[in-house]
Design goal:
It is a single chain. Helices cover 31% and strands 14% of the residues. It is an alpha/beta fold. It folds into two domains: 98 residues; 178 residues, Rossmann fold. A six-stranded parallel sheet has the order 6-5-7-8-9-10, sandwiched between helices. α9 links the parallel β9 and β10.
Length: 297
């Protein structure tokens, strides 16, 4: 049986030999007339439409599709398989770490090594045990984050638009906005573009912390900068920013602001999901997805 011709941009050199063997056994990835492309979500630029005449589908081992320009060619991502994606915990773990780092200023501790204990005044943080955490989006990441955070925070609350969610942790939206730490964990859709804007920041508690590990386009970056400058938001941490796939990230306003004001906001380069285990699971999903699509033909 002829193997499908697959271009593999997603890195897998660090994965176990069994995964590399799956790739070699399943695909022809040496020819150039590609039928499928397993994309690299970490590319700093967008995949601009169908570059190969015989391309049947894009396969992206990530939960988002914003790194691929939609020209009508089918795009398949991990979010299409919600049960499988529940087995991947990397992003929720990273989000919790980002919250702790933001509130305790761990991300800037390296600046004070030469001063050692003299850094105490600048590095004095706050205890999570006396703080409330509000999670916007109670899906794959939000649900895990809520479980992880219960033992750390004084109270943990979540909000989601899905009506089937219930329980003591699920609150009215305005309750979430009044928490000490607000964490955004929603999917990106056109309807969610700039979901968090100036009006929403204004409703948040003065002196609160804001965390975004969803998608950069879900937050109005200019509104976030204004909220940080005014002190309404005490600190922020973002693993994603709008414009990160523009190819000119150094001129993205939030990037420039973070470089100039590390005491107010810290960024990480969209790496919440980047673990050996999560990327192995994602690659196995991508391999099986192509096999599934080929069996449908």
């Amino acid at each position: 049986m002829k193997k499908p011709i697959v271009r593999i941009d997603a890195p897998y050199y660090f994965m176990p030999e069994k995964v590399k063997k799956m790739v070699d056994d399943s695909f022809d990835h040496h020819s150039t007339d590609f039928e499928y492309c397993i994309t690299n979500p970490g590319n700093s630029h967008k995949y601009l439409g169908t570059p190969w005449l015989n391309l049947k589908a894009w396969i992206t081992p990530s939960t988002g599709k914003t790194h691929i320009t939609d020209d009508g060619t089918p795009i398949h991502c991990l979010s299409d398989d919600p049960e499988y994606v529940k087995t991947i915990t990397a992003s929720a773990e990273y989000t919790l770490g980002m919250i702790i780092s933001c509130v305790r200023k761990m991300d800037i501790a390296y600046k004070y090594l030469d001063d050692w204990r003299g850094a105490e005044n600048d590095m004095r943080g706050e205890e999570l045990s006396e703080k409330s955490l509000g999670i916007i989006g109670y899906g794959r990441i939000g649900e895990k984050l809520e479980r992880y955070a219960r033992e750390l925070f004084g109270s943990v609350h979540a909000y989601d638009t899905q009506s089937y969610l219930s329980g003591p942790q699920v609150r009215e939206f305005d309750t979430i906005l009044k928490c000490d730490v607000v964490c955004l964990c929603i999917n990106y859709t056109p309807e969610n573009h700039h979901f968090v804007d100036a009006g929403m920041f204004a409703k948040m508690r003065k002196g609160s912390y804001f965390i975004n590990t969803s998608r950069g386009e879900c937050v109005d970056q200019h509104a976030l900068i204004d909220a940080l400058e005014s002190g309404h938001i005490k600190r922020a941490a973002c693993d994603v920013i709008e414009g990160e796939q523009s190819g000119d990230i150094k001129n993205v306003p939030l990037f420039k602001y973070a470089k100039a004001h590390p005491d107010k906001i810290f960024l990480s380069p969209h790496i919440a999901g980047a673990t050996i285990q999560s990327q192995e699971k994602a690659m196995i999903w991508a391999i099986n997805k192509i096999k599934e699509l080929e069996n449908e033909i």
